[in-house]
Amino acid sequence: xxxxxxxxxxxxxxTIKINKLSNFLQVESFEIGDSQSDLLAIQLGCMxxxxxxxxxxxxxx
Length: 61
Hints:
This protein is mainly α. The two termini are about 15 Å apart. The protein is built from 2 helices and no strands.
């Protein structure tokens, strides 16, 4: 499998996970408590940064 295909798959899977976590935080964050909610929000930010990196890799070969 070519590197570009692997990165595209990784980006697609990551985007799905970002959407799921985003939705979870909007609906369920009050049930898990502030501490866990804060940590998941940090995790979401990191995931979005990684997503940007993958998009940049695809854009710039």
